[in-house]
Amino acid sequence: EEPAATIVEMLKDITSYEGEDAVFKCRLSRETTQDVQWFLGDVPLQSNEMNEIRVQGTCHTLILRKVTLEDCGPISFKVGQHTSTA
Known about the structure:
It is found in: Cytoplasm. Residues 3-86 form the Ig-like domain. By secondary structure, this protein is mainly β. The protein has strands at 7-9, 22-28, 36-40, 43-44, 51-56, 59-64, 75-79, 82-85. A 4-stranded antiparallel beta sheet has the order 1-2-6-5, with no helix packed on it. It has a 4-stranded antiparallel beta sheet with strand order 4-3-7-8, with no helix packed on it.
């Protein structure tokens, strides 16, 4: 069984203007097959035309495309028992 990954680089708070893309990055202690999940408030996010979720090695990135006022709120990244919020 693989050891649990931990979050070594937390999310940072960002401010963006309506119509811009908002980019959130999180780095894990290791590459993992564990379930990772992004949230806006309590809503789990999926990759679609509005959100792009990327994984490159230990770096996990969420891009919210052309944000609106409705996108305002806490963004969370969860892996196992660990959570980072911005």
